[in-house]
Amino acid sequence: MKKISPSQSRFAVITTILSITFFFLLHHYIKTNQYNFILPIAVGYSILMFFNGLINGYYDHGKLTTIDKGFIYHLLTFLIVNLTSLGFILLQPDPVFSYTQLWLQLFPWGLGLYIHYLCVRNSIQGYSNEELFK
Amino acid sequence: MPDNAKYIQQLLSGWEQTFHKGQLTFWILLSLSQEPKSLEEITLFIKSNTGDVIFFDEQSIYRALRRYLDTDLISFELRNSLRGPQRKYYQLTPIGIELFNLFAKRNIKIFYTLYQSKILKLS
Fold first, then answer.
1. Is A124 within 8 Å of B71 when comparing Cβ atoms?
2. Cβ contact, residue pair A64, B70, below 8 Å
3. For residue A38, what pLDDT is reported?
4. Model-level pTM?
5. Cβ-based contacts of B25 with chain A (< 8 Å)
6. ipTM exceeding 0.85, yes/no
7. Fewest beta carbons less than 10 Å away: which of A67, A130, B75, B93?
8. Which residues pair with B87 in a beta bridge?
C-alpha cells in the first residue's frame, strides 16, 4: 500500500519551499531589525500554507492508506517545519533562533500531533466504524 | 398475557428496527454487486428484494453513498437521463467487490449453512 500520495508529495515539496523562504525572511528581518515585516510574512506564510493544504487535500485521491489523510498532512507539516527550524539553527553561522525556542515550538505542537493521532487512529478515512457502516 | 400477538408484534418491531439499522451497507453493496445503479434504482432494489420489510429513505442511502465514495468502496459515472439532468450511476470498485465478498462469506453464509443443516427453520 502506498503511504504517500502524489498530492501529499506535492504538499511536502511546497511546504518545504514555503518554510525555507519564511524562515529565511524571518531570519533576515530579525537580523536587520526590520520588525515591521515580520507580521506580514507570517500572515502570508499562514495563508499560503492553508491553501497548500486545502488544494492538495481536495485533489488527494491516494486513498489506499490505513492512516488518516488529515493526520498525514499534519505529520508532514510538523516534520518539515521543525526540520527547517533545526536546519536554520545548525547551518546559520549566527542563528537568531535557539534550541530552547525550537523546543518551545516542538513540545506543544508534538502534543497536539499526538492528540490528533489518538483521535484518528481508529478511523477509516476520517470516519468512525459506526459512521461509515451504520 | 392478554394479547400475545400484539406483544410479539411490539417485540418484533423493536428488534427489527435495531437489526435493520446495521444492514444499510450490506443492501447497498448487494444492489451494486449486480450492476451499476442510480440512487432510485438502489432504493427500488432494496424495497423489492426485501418485500418491503426493510426500508431505507433515499436521503440515508445518498449519505451512505457519499461515505462509500470517500472510502473508495464505490465509484460513479454520469449517464444521460431521458428526463432532466444526467444521473449518477454507482458501481463497486475492486476494493468494494473484495470487501463485499469477504463480508458475505464470513457473515451471510452462516445463515445459509444454518438453513441447510435445518438448525434454522423458516416454516
1. yes
2. no
3. 92
4. 0.70
5. 132-133
6. no
7. A130
8. B79
